[in-house]
Amino acid sequence: MRMPINWLFDPTEWYRIVADPLYLSFIIVITIAFFFGPLFCGWLCSAGALTEYLSKLVPDRFKIDLSRTVNPTPIRYGFLAGFILTPFLGGSVCCAFCNFSIFQRFISGLTGELQALAYWSTTAIITVVIWFVFFGLFIKGGRGWCSFGCPIGTIQSLFYAVGSKLGFTYKLKYDSSKCNGCGSCIKACSMWSITKTDQGKGISVSPYSCNVCLDCVAVCPQEALSYSKGITETHKPIQLEGTTSSAVANRG
Q1: CB 176 within 8 A of CB 224
Q2: Using CA atoms in the order 108, 211, 214, 186, what is the torsion angle rounded to 10 degrees?
Q3: Mean pLDDT, to the nearest integer, of 194-202?
Q4: Which of 26, 205, 215, 228 has its CB 3.0 to 4.6 Å from that of 4, i.e. a possible disulfide?
């Protein structure tokens, strides 16, 4: 589904809007993201799930933890901007820079279609190293590629961020009155979308990177996180002993 994004900004490919079923798939995916969140990323993405699950087999001492030092959101949206601008520069990164395409060829080769392995290029090999090894097996959460370099995931997150502001859409919701600041949700989030607030007790969830996998909901012992309709909450000022809530808010 990266291809429709690339075609959309290439006038020579506009005929595909009515001729190629991939456009219909693209529209369905972003529509679902608007009303329910990027469910394709969190629940159906085989390429992202592969690296996430295999990374669990690598001991934590061998993994790179960028979650505390790098904010992936501006990087992933910057990459999306570059992806969109590529057709205007006469280029295309639809398949050469696509972990889905590589994953498909790899599985096809294992199941007997040896010709699929013959299409490997230098770019594909570099992509494997970045997606599967560096951003997969040896990075915290195993979803570094999803966090930094997946344009279709970024577009879904953008539609989700807009939709999550509306009361009739589904989204990840946070109830600060139930939160005890244990940090279980932060450890469970493979997309590094959950961070502690300045006060240190509550959390903040970024819809611009969350893939609504709901792992955080499953591990929260206080049920402070949920998935439902309504207006979402990021965090509220925490009442500290001997202060007023307004004073805390001002200091924060």
Answers
A1: yes
A2: 110
A3: 79
A4: 26
State the SS3 of the chain: CHHHHHHHCCHHHCCHHHHCHHHHHHHHHHHHHHHHCCHHHHHHCHHHHHHHHHHCCCCHHHCECCCCCCCHHHHHHHHHHHHHHHHHHCCCCCCCCCHHHHHHHHHHHHCCCHHHHHHCCHHHHHHHHHHHHHHHHCECCCCHHHHHCCHHHHHHHHHHHHHCCCCCCCEEEECCCCCCCCCHHHHHCCCCCEEECCCCCCEEECCCCCCCCCHHHHHCCCCCEEEECCCCCCCCCCCCCCCCHHHHHHHC
Domain 167-251 has CATH 3.30.70.20: yes
Residues 130-156 have pLDDT tens digits of 999 999 999 999 999 999 989 999 999
Ranges in the chain annotated CATH 3.30.70.20: 167-251
Residues 6+ apart with CB under 8 A from 126: none
pLDDT at site 8: 80
Residues 248-252 have a mean pLDDT of: 37
